[in-house]
Amino acid sequence: MAKKLVGSMKLQIPAGQANPSPPVGPALGQRGINIMEFCKAFNAKTQEMEQGAPCPTVIQYYQDKSFTMDIKTPPAAYYLKKAAGLKNVGKRNRPRGAELPGRETVASITSKQLREIAEAKMVDLSANDVEAAMKIILGSAKSMGIEVKG
Question: Could you tell me the pTM of the whole model?
């Protein structure tokens, strides 16, 4: 007999850094998911990724207290900030884009870097080819105040 799905949740956890402290522990604990089992499984799956990269994770949990997780690639904004080398920090010491996107440019990247980002994000995007994925990433770059040259 198939497991009965109780629900699903989304968390954004740094790669290789899942631990039982908030926000991960309480979010899992209140749904009856074994926190240490999740942390070990998540850290094992993300050890190949860049440490600290934010990973959107969809967790589906079942009536028998088991779970499955789908780990996605880091957000496009993360890759864009990294490629542009943004050093200005906002809340929580994270680099951020322009205050007035469209009116000001905070950084620029090359079309080669845009292609690399699109290829990395291709599995999570609803694009049929790399060119379409590049247009999606270009839209994110423009909304952050990052100019694409070349």
Answer: 0.78
